[in-house]
Design brief:
The complex is a heterodimer of chains A (114) and B (112). Chain A is mainly β. Chain A is 0% helix and 53% strand. Chain A is built from no helices and eleven strands. In chain A, a hairpin with a 3-residue loop joins β4 (31-38) and β5. Chain A is globular and about 35 Å long. Chain B has 112 residues and is mainly β. Chain B is built from no helices and eleven strands. Chain B has strands spanning 3-5, 10-14, 19-21, 24-26, 32-38, 44-50, 56-58, 64-68, 73-78, 87-94, 106-111. In chain B, the strands form three sheets. Chain B has a five-stranded mixed beta sheet with strand order 2-11-10-5-6, with no helix packed on it. Chain B has a four-stranded antiparallel beta sheet with strand order 3-9-8-7, with no helix packed on it. In chain B, β8 and β9 form a beta hairpin. Classes of the chains: A mainly beta (114), B mainly beta (112). The interface between A and B is medium-sized, with 28 and 25 residues.
């Protein structure tokens, strides 16, 4: 158990809909990362937050947005969903934002768009 | 920018045999290098990482990796494979920023 929790574990929705994925980092971790894992794209970095502020952006679509709240939990919002958004979404957390820090991964949210 | 190449998408070894999973990186800055393992239907777990100092890094479950700057490699090895090692393995560098740039992953199968 990494100490990172993600809800829900599974999500089935329809094209055009909007969903919110939630992540609670390990106790004391200030940095949260979101990654997408799909069969065709592999594991890709989406976005990073550090202590409530956006720190880095990766291959995140404009239809996707995220935020980190004062209690340090984070939410990833996916809107106007398409079939191709079906994937496993991971959240990770680390103590600080440095590149040498270990990122601890949650169990993921599996999203299926029908 | 970081990139990583993991040669071969699938490696099969016999139980008790040497495990060697290859990883080569390209980086415009000295990288930090990570190996993660993903068991079926689970998240990623850190096996080991190289930041600075000793280039031979020991990790969990008997795995180790050696950072070779001249070869831009960070291959993962284990002297004797166990059935429980069957999983997917990812090599990932970071660099100037913290994002992990994952390779395509290698699926390790262990034959009894």
């Amino acid at each position: 158990d990494s100490g990172v929790t993600q809800t829900p574990k599974h999500l089935i929705t329809a094209t055009g809909q909007r969903v919110t994925l939630r992540c609670s980092p390990r106790s004391g971790d200030l940095s949260v990362y979101w990654y997408q894992q799909s069969l065709d794209q592999g594991l890709q970095f989406l976005i990073q937050y550090y202590n409530g502020e956006e720190r880095a952006k990766g291959n995140i679509l404009e239809r996707f947005s995220a935020q980190q709240f004062p209690d340090l939990h984070s939410e990833l919002n996916l809107s106007s969903l398409e079939l191709g958004d079906s994937a496993l979404y991971f959240c990770a957390s680390s103590r600080t934002s440095g590149p040498q820090e270990t990122q601890y991964f949650g169990p993921g949210t599996r999203l299926l768009v029908l | 920018a970081q990139s990583v190449t993991q040669l071969g998408s699938h490696v099969s070894v016999s139980e008790g045999a040497l495990v060697l999973l290859r990883c080569n990186y390209s980086s415009s800055v000295p990288p930090y290098l990570f190996w993660y393992v993903q068991y079926p239907n689970q998240g990623l777990q850190l096996l080991l990482k190289y930041t600075t100092g000793a280039t031979l890094v020991k990790g969990i479950n008997g795995f180790e990796a050696e950072f070779k700057k001249s070869e831009t490699s960070f291959h993962l090895t284990k002297p004797s494979a166990h059935m429980s090692d069957a999983a997917e393995y990812f090599c990932a560098p970071t660099g100037a920023n913290s994002k992990l740039t994952f390779g395509k992953g290698i699926t390790l199968s262990v034959r009894p």
